[in-house]
Amino acid sequence: MPTEPSTERDRVFRFGPFELSAQEGELRKSGVRIKLQEQPFRVLVELVAKAGRLVSREDLHNKLWPSDTFVDFDVGLNSTIRKLRQALNDDADSPRYIETLAKRGYKFVAPVADSTAAPQTASKDSPPGTPISLPGDDTKSAASEEIRRKPRRWYWVLAACVLALVSYGALAAWRRASTSPPLASEQRITANPPEAPVTGAVVSPDGKYVAYSDTTGVYIRHIDSGETRPLGLPKGFDAVPTSWFPDSAHLLLSVVEGGGTAPSLWKVSILGGSPQKVMEDASEGVVSPDGSKIAFLHDAIDVRAYFSSFTGYAREIWVVDTNGSNLRRLSRADVLPDSGNAPSQTADRRYTEVYFYHLAWSPDGGRVAYFRISESPDSVTLETIGINGGPGRVVESSMQVGLALCWTTDGQLLYAGRNDPRSESFDYGLRSVMVNEKTGEPEREPMQLTKGLGRIGGLSVTAAGKRLILWRVTTFAEVFLTEIDAETGRLKVARRLTLDEHKNLVDAWTPDSSAILFTSNRNGTFQLFRQAIDRTTPEVVVDGRNISLPRLNPDGTQILYLTGPDPKDPAHMTSVMQIPLQGGHPRLLLQKPFIQNIQCARSPSKLCFLNIAVGSATQFFSFDAESGKTQEFVTFQVRQQPNWSLSGDGSQLALILYGPQRKVTFMKMADKSTHDVLLNEWPRLNGVDWAADSKSVFVSSQSPNGAPVILSVMPSGYHPVLLEGDKGLRYWAVVPSPDGHHGALQAITGENNVWMVENF
Question: What is the structure's pLDDT at 190?
Answer without folding.
Answer: 95
